[in-house]
Specification:
The protein is α/β, with parallel strands linked by helices. It is 36% helix and 17% strand.
């Protein structure tokens, strides 16, 4: 649970107005709470001392298995990896699974056969652990980006070196605080979930659910997978808004689904930001424009720019430096107060 003491002890608040009718359903400590900010750096994380070794050499042949290229976030992540590889003089091969788990598994098996020095993987879901262990068995060090795999199948520090990601549970908690502020702690919420089985979808739901336990007037009336895409976000939101006409808010696990939901709200003649409050996660350029326009109340950043940290981690590992099996990114919060100033810098 997101405790009041945790919230009170963390960084800057939203500064936005509470335009909802108030917490008619009960108390909500989150309404006046500060943004809890980034989670503390994990402590006691073991280092990767059993994973396949990576010899230090002047240059490397590296592969990157991307799970999709169907949204701005994924495109920005791939671009970041390619730009940093060029900067480091690394030969990078990139595959795209087109949002299909079976294709990503086949892609990775094809990359293993090419015997790269190292392999970066952005898992489509947590259920690709078996192919991660195949890479380890072939002596290839694996670095997971932005999503994790099932640790009962692939052991951190043994079958893969590390996972570099944002704290998705914390993102969900931060989004819950913004939803409380947007609605005054009184909301019937439609939740648009990310791809079923993907760690961001699992954890963003978990963090949000845990946090709104503080607010008896905030209830999720329905949750449905919208696959992290704008088109599906719109179609799912259209259906759920029709079946739940009393809904007053939408929590989307990413900006693309939120933008689709905003279009759905407008299509039924309601006003996003007024009739239906929308909160999401990612911080893409179109999302920040929607925040600035008042359609989206807030978005919690989840930066896709993994390239510099990913390759620095790989170089540290090759140099024999201790690498923790979990590395957490730092992200910020975008509200009406700062969205316009960050649009040009967003992806």
């Amino acid at each position: 649970m997101l405790s009041v003491s945790l919230l009170a002890g963390c960084g800057g608040g939203n500064g936005g107005d509470n335009t909802a009718s108030g917490d008619s359903g009960g108390s909500c400590s989150l309404v006046d709470a500060d943004d809890p900010g980034n989670s503390a750096a994990p402590s006691g994380v073991p280092t990767a001392d059993q994973a396949p070794e990576l010899a230090a050499k002047p240059t490397y042949t590296v592969a990157f298995s991307q799970n999709a290229s169907n949204n701005p976030w994924r495109l920005a992540e791939t671009k970041s990896m390619q730009e940093e590889a060029d900067k480091q003089g690394v030969q990078l091969t990139v595959t795209d699974a087109n949002n299909q788990q079976s294709k990503q598994i086949a892609d990775i098996q094809g990359l293993i056969a090419q015997k790269p020095d190292a392999l970066f993987i952005a898992p489509i879901t947590e259920q690709i652990g078996n192919v991660v262990t195949e890479a380890a068995a072939a002596g290839i060090p694996v670095f997971l980006l932005d999503r994790d795999v099932d640790h009962d199948v692939a052991t951190p520090g043994k079958d893969f070196v590390t996972v570099i990601q944002s704290d998705f549970v914390q993102e969900g908690k931060r989004a819950a605080v913004q939803m409380a502020k947007a609605t005054g702690g009184d909301a019937k919420i439609i939740e648009l979930e990310g791809t079923t089985g993907a760690s961001p979808a699992i954890d963003r739901k978990k963090g949000f659910d845990e946090a709104i336990k503080e607010c008896s007037g905030m209830k999720i009336v329905v949750s449905q997978d919208a696959d992290f895409t704008r088109a599906k976000g719109q179609s799912v939101a259209e259906t759920l808004l029709q079946s739940h006409p009393d809904a007053t808010a939408i929590y989307a696990h990413n900006d693309e689904m939120a933008l689709g939901a905003i279009a759905a709200v407008k299509a039924i003649g309601k006003v996003p930001g007024k009739d239906i409050k929308v909160v999401s996660i990612d911080g893409e350029s179109d999302g920040l424009k929607a925040v600035d326009a008042g359609d989206l109340y807030a978005t919690v950043e989840c930066s896709p720019r993994f390239g510099p940290l990913a390759f620095q981690t790989m170089m540290d590992y090759a140099a024999g430096k201790p690498v923790p099996t979990l590395i957490i990114n730092e992200d910020q919060l975008f509200t009406k107060d700062n969205a316009a100033d960050n649009i040009a810098k967003a992806y």
